[in-house]
Amino acid sequence: MNYSKKIKKTGLFYYRREKLLRKWAEANQTNQLVNGDDNRQLPCFSPSKINIRTKRNTNSHGTPPLKPILVSVPGQNEEYGLDSDKIENLSLLESIRYWALKTNQTHQSINLIMDIIRRKTNGKTLPRSARTLLQTSREETSNIVPLSGGQYWYKGIKQCLLEYFRNIEAPVAISINVNIDGIPIYKSSKSQFWPILFNIHEMPEVGPVPIAIFYGSSKPISVEEFLQPFVNELMEIVPHGLLVNNHKLEVRIRCFICYSPARAFIKGVANFNSKNGCLKCTCQGEYSHESRTVVFKSINSAKRTDKEFRTNTYDRHHKVVTPLLRILKLDLIQDIIVSDRLHLVDLGIMKRLLLGWRDGLFGFKTKLSSQQINQISTMLQDIELPSEIHRKFRGLDCLSFWKGSELNSFLHYASIVVMKEFLPIDAYQHFLLFFCSITMLTSEAYKSNWQVSEKMIEKFVSEYMVIYGEQYVTSNVHNLLNIVDEAEVFGPLHTTSAYPFENALQRIKNLLRSGYRSLEQAVNRLSEIHAQEYYTTQQSKSNKKTIPSVVTNSNYKGIEVKNGLFLSTSKRNCWFLTKKNEIVHFDNVSEHSDRIVIFGKILNDKFDFFTYPFPSSVLNISRGDISKLSLKINHFECSDIKSQKVHLDR
Predict the structure, then answer these.
(1) Is residue 144 part of a domain?
(2) Do 489 and 359 have their domain in common?
């Protein structure tokens, strides 16, 4: 009987799926015994398709306790490939647990697959419930309390640190970055999460960790209620540290990395688009009727200070009293940064410039024609970026859908080449000021020239008013004036970026199964993921590989020089820069005992791509004729390689 078709034709499949399949399986099992056919399979669920290498568990005393399996909550675009080496050493129970956490499976799916395996393999040691398998905590949801405007779950930074550093063997000092931001969790309602996340600056391989989550239809109504538990913990931990295994763990707050509305909320000050909304200086904004925004024209206003902020000197800037005032070692001006790479540079200035050029928002002078837009789109789609950059460029017609990482790649790899032919000279040279300054601020290698970046940023902001108009100098453009000062204190831009936190927000959002009791769902899913598993990222796993390592397949031969640098004979990965600033085309690689030798041809004919505001060779950017490679094949050690190069045809 083709029972599955009958199920699909009725609503019972959705309301009584588990019960119906169990009855069908029992009936089918009876038929198998009668007919003597032991190879019949459940429809759509062939055991041969369950790609799990198992090791039978001989423990008959119930479900074993959770063990660190070192998996991370998968993101939207993460591939669900199982690690065969990891599965090899796991029992059947641990393998199912690994699969469930790795692929973010629902409890219904886990129950079904365990029932199938139990019936097909007589796996009596398998638990009957997904909650037992994953050991879903019953205590975590009891920590959810009502809060003005919604619900609040608070785990605490102390508990998170104790879990991670439980095996500490020596005194450790860490500095933490804190992120607070909101994320809508459904398309059809106003429901949103406002998590408090943190990561450890000295351990970039450790992903962001949730300290607390607020759930409601808007942001928390009271900043005092929202931040009070967090502030109380910091007041205890920061001065005295934590004692773990009789060793002291020193904790310091490095900075708060938040989006503009969240920064204003946690500081209790005027919003970013208010006339007194600048967090760093006393610049008075003006309302522009032409652009319908508040603009900030001054570039030399007096800087705000922590002392004056704490004494409520800026009366029009303050709105409510923030509990952050109680953290005495926190500089409320310097440590709450505005130079977040994601929101200020990529989704801020870069996207605004592209929209202005494409749609003519800055006027007719810099507007691109439809033919030019099509040409630029074609050029972008033809660019082959290195394999470490996962997003391929899309056309300008999809600009509103570009992710921050796409705008980042455009700025650093494509912008100066693609836009050179289509922008007026003054607008292109103005953009070069922005490109060069941001490029230098992304690496410690250019730190000696960061003061030059500051001058270029000031020139960029002042000329922005001339080329595009004063009415477009919004808070993002104005905040660029503080980017160098914050880089001097905290380091290159990627160390104060919100990219890892945005990814963590999406992962928390993806934990939800339905719209029922959303906060409880998220808390339960987080409780199912062991602390060590949640903190471990794909990067930390890749560190276990032997690097450098030679890679060979039917299409190419290559070498992984280090994490994030892969060379091969394919067009996208075949160029690199040596420490002698030689541009080399990768030809081959050989491995003899413990020595790896890379073979390539040096590009002889190269010159600067631009000379304003300084020669492009300072940033290792060159233009050359790739047909004029050296005839001699040179050999290089892995230690000779400085960086990878991106090749763009013109």
Answers:
(1) yes
(2) yes
